[in-house]
Amino acid sequence: MNHTKKSIVALLSVFATSTTLLATVAQQKDFLTKYPDAKAKLGKCSTCHVKAMPKKDDSVANAYGLDLKKNIDKDKKIDFAKVEDLDSDGDGVKNVDEIKAGTNPGDKASK
Length: 111
Ligand SMILES: [Ca+2]
What we know:
Layout: H1 3-18, H2 25-34, H3 39-42, H4 63-69, H5 95-101
The structure holds calcium ion (CA).
């Protein structure tokens, strides 16, 4: 493992352990595994959080994030399918349709 890779792994470890209340890197990866076409527009913190770069004490979930929180199992795996038919942000567009369109399912202004 070269120096750059070691640095990245160390950085990710710090991030993962210091942000226990946030979606873990694994959960974000799970989202992108479930919705690979959403990566360009929704592969980021603000898909589920109010802040674009949330800190541990400032990690308020948006409406979509709150609905996802209701569907996390003991291994912190999220059942994304269970909230697909919801309209978390109340803008009249179902979550799954927003994800397919690349709009934010947790931001009423994005539809
Ligand atoms: Ca919506």
